[in-house]
Amino acid sequence: MNRPYRWDLVRPDQLGTLLERAGEPWLWFLDELIECAAKVVARAGDADLYFVGRSADSVHDLLSGTPWRERIHQLPLSFAGVRSGLSESDVDTLRGYLASAGLSPHDLARGRPKVFVDLVHSGQTFTELYGLLRKWIDDEREAWSIVRGRLRFLGITVRERTTPSAFRWQQHFDWPADLPANGVRNISLAWPVWHYFGDRQEKLTASFPRPRWSDENGRAPEHSEERLRGLAEAVAIVEAGRSKAGRDLLVRHLRKEPAMAESWLRTLITRLR
pLDDT band at 74, cuts 50/70/90? Predict the structure, then answer.
């Protein structure tokens, strides 16, 4: 299975004049992005993070500029258009893709816990991904009693007033009940920022739905104006994560999290300072 081409943002010197063509980006959302990234790290726990699709790319890119970069991974995958079901060929393709990303049933049962992160509207992407993994785990006869405690889903939702009647996407599906209480958690973003990341932001790569899973052209870099503007913004976000001001703000938000009681987070904060 192909992966969409993505430039190396940590070493932007390889980008030549591409950034000059894109112009200077405006990171109007940066403070809220940093707060969101801190919550993602803290609430995921001492785990490896997999950012599904493109919606949360900016959280991934910000953390790419920090010592946590070895814990973060991208999973450029869209389940758009698969509600009619996946063919056997689709399932084989996806299993190979997930295995190459370190997400086989064998991997899920060993090493650090795996946490999937994505902006969530209805929860359909997480539902499709969970169903795919659950069936694969059963087929491989990996111990579900072990895997269920090491598999987590972290949704980034629209911030709403907390009331008993507030919409909670996980309550509309049965599968979250198969996981421990911390298996499905949410972080909220203000609507303008969530809407920008999920619907309006110019992304570094094109979406990766089923028709593109076997498209060889997906491996080539795109040089459209949209992609270059996305590139410039992504590079600026990485630099913000590497800056002293960005790290100081990240640390301030991390210190507010209950996970500060755990040694792994205190160690990370020491590395950030």
Answer: very high
Q: Is residue 10 part of a domain?
A: no
Instruction: Tell me what percent of the residues of the chain surpass a pLDDT of 90.
Output: 70
Does residue 241 sit within a domain? yes
Q: Distance (Å, rounded) from C-alpha 37 to C-alpha 241? A: 10
CB distance 64 to 10 below 8 Å: yes
Q: What is the pTM of this model?
A: 0.93
Apex CA 265: angle with CA 260 and CA 271, to 5°?
130
Indicate whether 167 pLDDT > 80.
Answer: no
Q: Give the residue numbers spanning the domain of 224.
A: 25-272
The verdict on residue 9 lying in a domain is no
Work out how many domains the chain is built from and give that number: 1
Residue 73: helix, strand or coil by DSSP?
strand
Distance CA 234, CA 7 (A): 10
Banded model confidence at residue 44, pLDDT cuts 50, 70, 90: very high
Residues in the chain: 273
In a domain, residue 2? The reply is no
Angle between helices 263-272 and 244-254 (to 10 degrees): 160
Report the candidate in 134, 158, 156 with the shortest Cα–Cα distance to residue 147: 134
